[in-house]
Give the backbone structure.
Amino acid sequence: MKFYTQLFILMMFSLVLWQCAGSSDQNDEEGGYSEEEQQQKELDDIEALLGISSDDNGGQNQAQQDDTAAEEPQKKQAEEEKPAARTQNEDEGEKLNLLDTNESIPAGQMSGMSAAEKKKYEKEIKKLKKQLKEKDNTIANLSAELSVKEDELSKKSNSPSYGGVSGGVGAISMEEYSSRYEEARNAFENRNYQQAIELFESLLATSSSHPLADNAQYWIGESQFMLHRYDAAIISFEKVFTFPKSNKNADAQYKLGLCYVMKGDKTKAREEFERLIADYPNSRYVALARKKMAAL
């Protein structure tokens, strides 16, 4: 097939040359074409017979050049956008890391931030630190309360008379009870608060019906308050009200308000002070309670 195609092209080329020769003679006689124009015309005729157009080739090449030229700005834009996208992703990653930490922002990271971004992240970090501190305080208070309750359960199992309003003087006399009470009070006055707690608790374990039992319970709360064990102190002060006709009720009520002040619970502190004013209007603590409420 290839041979016949080539033979056909050769025959056609010979025919064209024959025609061109006749035309050349005629043109020479008429003075129409130069030699170079004649050669170009012959080439055009051959291409026309073969179905080839120099215009088509030129157009195709031009189209390719146009496509290449059109693609260049797009490639350039894509290359420029890649670093920008990568930078944006890196910035987002850095932001997430900063929000997940409770440490200060490293100087290297802060150098690339605006003032608004620095302020925003510092605010988030401060908020996280505050939340962490609040949780630590909550855990510490719950641990103290749990320790107090475990101690109460242990003492109740060992002494049925502890913590209630019933029970006799027990194995010690009234005079000995009073003497040991004074010993515990002296420990408190000398700021030996833990020793005072142990002495007062031993008295209550012996008897909770002695006239000084409610006082012993109150001074346990005072000792815990001085040791900053506010949750334990609240429980101890509330127990004072379980003793009938106690002369320490107003004192305990005022100290309950102070415990909540120290814990930072202004709402509960105000409630306890208001209860003091309502239940014990003639108490010497009323004026102090009003002063504390005004400062909340």
Remarks:
- Residues 54-99 form the longest helix (46 residues).
- The domain at 138-247 is CATH 1.25.40 (Serine Threonine Protein Phosphatase 5, Tetratricopeptide repeat).
